[in-house]
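Lab notebook, bench 4. The sequencing result for the construct came back, and we need a structural model before the next group meeting so we can plan mutations. Quick request posted to the team channel:

Model the 3D structure of this chain.
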Amino acid sequence: MTANQPKISQYGRYEILSELGRGAMGVVYRAHDPQIDRLIALKVLREDRVTSNDLVQRFVKEAKAIGRLSHPGIVTVYDVGQDHGTIFIAMEFLEGTPLNEVIQSKTLTVEESVDLGIQVADALDYAHSHGIVHRDIKSTNIILGPSGRAKITDFGIAHVEDPSATQQTQAGEILGTPVYMSPEQVMSKPVDGRSDLYSLGIILYELTTGHRPFRGDNLASIFRAITQDTPDPPATAAPGTPKPLSDTIVKSLSKDPEGRFQTGKAMAEALRSSLVVEPPARAPEKATKSKPGVVILSLVVIVVLSITGLIYFKREPKSGQTPAIPQGRETRDTATAGQALKSAILAVSSTPDGAQVFVDNEFKGKSPLHLDLPLGKHDVRLSLPDYYEWEAQVRLQDEGKTPLSVRLVPIEDQAS
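Done. Here's the predicted structure in token form:
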């Protein structure tokens, strides 16, 4: 028998193969279900946690309720049973890595962090709509599969007791993972789904800044920070974090549940919106004798029902004639006879690639592509099936190359 093999070789019909991990409430084993010949994860409640028959019945009832959940972002529960004086739960065996191990080995990009947040928020919205509150959302309870699919584990298993149970029970919960607890959990108040969303906000703060918002040398200092301190916004703690994302995380960490997102769906929608990228304006350079001008990129997102095509006229300059540019007019509109129209390169890229690019209502090709355009204002529109159409107005004032990078937002199924 190897070191990681348990002394008990079977619970119910499930054959124990090896130990996967231990927690405050139980042990998880890699097991085999001979009835349908598949691998499963078997969660066995520690015997010292089986303190009363009432506790056992509550545990079984809650586990069965969780077993009715069916969502791609939530681990599937197959079976619940009792054996060897304790309780076991047969669950889906996940191929993947816990999020805490992932972030120890690499830094997730903003896009990867937001995508993970959207997945978890959607899964929590589903669970909350079915009356299930996790109460222990943390990085170790989120498994990332090889394809990047996130799944929440330990739904209701780490917290067998009711939220209104005794102080001893609640203290045991707090001692588990205090840094992810919401203020209402720390103060032993009843919790609802908004507490789970707060914990997700803690994870997103950690992913974007590299550290957790509330820290301390002991439980008392951590509890004080959670209930009293206001952390720096992610955009301040980690310059470069998009402000819409920073604002979303700050909202999720409100001390008052009423100030947070009220549903997982609302939080997921805010995260999706935070990825709608507007190219930032390039900071103007200080004018010097050797640098007569500045480069400014200004992008204003507009909603357009219809766009009238604009026609550009080019006229050959007359010999020796210098064009006059009336003040207050756009460069594109003031080209006169005797002056060739100046142009710039607009480098358009999109995520995903292959979007149809329209400039001033004229189809120019599919992204990525480089466009030679006259200086001045241009209406730019990107279109791709199954994604929201993106429109903006771009002002080109420099003859060099101007990048335009657009992240298209997928159209969600509103029927669910």
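The two ends are 50 Å apart (CA to CA).
Will bring this to the meeting.
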